[in-house]
Each structure stands twice: as C-alpha cells, then as structure tokens.
Amino acid sequence: MKQLNLVLLWHMHQPDYRDYITNEFVLPWVYLHAIKDYTDMAYHLETHPQTKAVINFVPILLDQLEDFTEQFATGQIRNPLLRLLATPELERITIQDRLYIFDSCFLSNHDTMLRPYPTYKRLHELYQIFNKRSESELTYISGQYLSDLLVWYHLAWMGESVRRNNEFVMRLMAQSRGFSYADRLQLFNLIGDLIQKLIARYRKLAESGQIELSTTPHYHPLAPLLIDFSSARDSQPDITLPEYPLYPGGRSRATFQLSSAVTSHTQRFNEKPAGIWPAEGALSTALLKIMAEQNCQWSASGEGVLASSLRASYPDESLPDRNHYLYRPYRVAGEAERVICFFRDDQLSDLIGFEYAKWFGRDAAENFIQSLERIYHSTPAEESPIVSVILDGENAWESYPYNAFYFFNDLYSLLDNHPFIRTTTYRDYIANPENVDNIATLPKLAAGSWVYGTFSTWIGDKEKNSAWDMLCAAKYSFDRVIQSDRLTDEEKIEASRQLASCESSDWFWWFGDYNPAHSVTSFDQLFRQNLMNLYRLLKLPIPPAVLEPISKGSGHTEESGTMRRSS
Question: What are the boundaries of each domain within the chain?
Fold first, then answer.
C-alpha cells in the first residue's frame, strides 16, 4: 500500500570557537544554542515518541559541548560571558568587561527575543542612551543594570521547553528585574546542568530507535574543495578559482576528517554512523568514494545537485517534473555506488527555514502537511515517495515566536496521526527490503552543495579565493615542518588539530560584502587567528598577509547571515 516516507534531518553544528593558544571560547554560540535549540529539539522528540528523525551532530560541536561540561564540573570557565554571569560584584568589573557585556547581550533577533519582554526591551533603550556617552562614563552604570542585562540575555536564549517547565526560570521571568548574585549563580548552574545532560538525551532517543544519529567530517570542511578546487566547475564552468591549483594533500585531509568523525561518533554513541551528511550538503564523486571506503551506507545533498547531475547524465533530454525524479534515492554509478544518496526537497526545507516563522504555528504545520499530501498524490501510483527535509537544527528558530514551540508541537502531532505519511530515518528506510526497487542509478554526479547547487558561497570571489590561498600556503608550511624533526609528536598533534580547524567551511561562508559587517569581522578575525596559531605551533613567522583583514562585509539582505535559501 502506497505511503509517503518523510525524513526530517536536523543538522546540529557550530564551528570551533576556541583559541587553541589561550584555550578561551571567543564566542558564546555553542552554549547559547545548547540551552535554547538543542534542548528544545530534544524536548519535542521526547514528547512525540512516534515521530522519527535523523539528528546530525558535527563532532566539533560535540567536542565543544563536552568541553563546556568539563568547565562547569571543574569551575574553570573559559568563556568571558559565562564568567561575567557568575561574577559576584559587577560594580567592580573593568571598562573592557562592561563594553563586552554591551557588545554581547543584545546579539539576537530583537523581534522575537527582546521586544516581547518589556524589562529587557527597556534595558536596550537605556543602552542606546549609554552608547552615546564616552567610555569613561560607563563606570557610572550600576552593577544592578549589568546584572539584569546578563540575566535577561540568558533568559532570552533559554529554550521554550525550559521556560515552560523549570520553576526557577519561571520565577526569574516573573520577577523581571533586580536580580541578585544568587539568582545569577543559580542561572549559571542551570546552564551547566542543561549542557551536561544534553548528549545523554539524544543518546537515549537513539537507543530507543526513535532517531538515527549521523555525522559530518569532523571540523565541517567543504570536502569536495579540499579534494579538488576544480570540482566547483561542475556547476559553474566559468568560476574563478584560487591561485593555488589544489589544496595540498587535500584527499588525505578529507579522509582524515571523515575517519576522525566516524571514530568520535562511535566512541560517543557506541555504534558507527550509518550515514554522513557532508558539510553544507557538499558532494562530489571523489568524496563519495572516500565515504564508500569508510563503509558509509548513505549520504545526502541538495535538490539542485540532483538536477545538475541529471542534466549532466542526460544532456539530450529535458528535465522532467520534479515529482518524477526527486522523491527516490540514487546510487552513483562506479566505485561509489555502495553509498545511497538522498536529495533534499529544497522548497519544503526553505518553507521551514525562511517562511513559516511569519505564520501562526498551526497554519504553518497544516500547510506543510498539505504540501506533503500533494507530493503523495503527484508521484507515480506504484511508488512510495521518500521526501527529505533537511536544514539547520538551530539557526531558523530564532525567527519564530517562542522558538518555534507551537510549530513543532502541531507539526509532530499532525505527523503522528496521519493516515499515509510516515516519518522514518535513512537507516530504517535502507534496511527495509521493500525499498530496494525504488533506488535509481545516477550515471554522473555534478559536484555541488545544498546552497544554489553550487560552491559559490565558499569559493569564486576575490575574498573567498584569497582565504583559500592563505590556507594553501599554511598547508605547504605545515607539510614541510611535519616532515622535519622540528616538532615533538605532541606538538605535531596540536598543529594537526589547529590545521583541521582552519579547514572549516564556516570561515569561507562569511567572506563577502553581502554579509553583515559585525559577523564578517568576527569570523574574519577567527579565521586569521586560527592561521596565526597554526604558524606559532609550527614555530614559523606569521606571513604579513595573515595580519590584514580579508573581508569587511556590509550586506543586510536575505542572502546574508547564518542561513541561505537553496535557490
């Protein structure tokens, strides 16, 4: 009997925000998303045990969550915002710390995370007055103002499931102002408790069979570009590439990043991952071969990659209606055919990522179900379609009222009770022998990502290419030093870890004037600081070019920020 198989893949990722020289967490996004988004996403699954999903954890995110767990256990906090939350006498902090609080504690979506709270909104209005004063006058701002601001920022970033179920948080929000040091310390300890229990909650969901846990190459590299810059020309033949023809030893680096991810996943969850969501959904035939060597069962990418691949495979034929090619899995002919590939429904995924935040939760959930029903009725009668909805598990919800609480509650409830839509996981789908006949063969795979079906978000313009050239130069230096006897074995391991962080796709994402200046500045500094630290670990002088900013940014368009539309 025909049914629609729905896979919801929530991708959980933050780049490595640690400075490996100072061991400080430069930015707070790991722990803030942990108490808001990763906590809420677990809660919604726990309260809807019939809903299945794939949860993709990037190992570098799990590394940092475990790092924060250790910090709370030892009391050695290495993030300045958390330290300030637990600082007894805020009247005595330095001007630099005061400026840091102001620079940090209003970074959020103000429509959904500031304006709904009158006291927090008033704190922001006062800040706008203070901001016109000289730095020396900031000493007159009271410790009570700073205390209330720190508490409200963390309350705004608290998961809706926590706000509704934790009596202490409910008391703080009802109290509204005048928070004491004891209040701040208790909030600090709650943050630690939420983070400490987080991975165990997902492990329990996986052990029950409700979710499948998948992984990504360890530090989230854009692996097809590590292997071969020219793979970008599969989807953009005229793209301008970096001056360096190749990233040195790129295939071995991609293999290392994938192998490291499989090892760390196995250690954490007591089983090897069945599938790999490549960073940014970026696939190429060369990367699929590496996945096949690692015995991966499945991978996934964006709809645009499938469309480009079909055009490349059948150049003399026009592309049929998407209902006739999108909703089935594929094997890529050749050495990578052991890896089954699934392709994201970009329209449905983008509705969740960009549109439904503007709707009432119930209306959005019902519209999503109706869209699935149309797919069910539009696909061939003899086929049970598989629909892949894949997007970030953290970044979209900031735009939703109540962190998408009502949307998820209504969506999962409707899915639980639907007569012919079944949530499943890729591992379960593959394990069902009835689905074998649904797997099609793809003669050629056109390399690309889930953003536009291309690699243009990470390579091709002057600033992105400049960053790749800096990384290539650093890799050549790394190779020379590692092959020499200048470093101890322990120093080589530290340098290799630092190099892996430099290879993250996140740095290249942010370069470009279409991104907001504040974010570009932060990530530009982080990328170059990572390169500086690498040269220091290699005991080499830092090239002058690494000391100069790569990109400034300026944009405020929908194409900027932490998420992109697929097309």
Answer: 29-34+63-205, 462-547
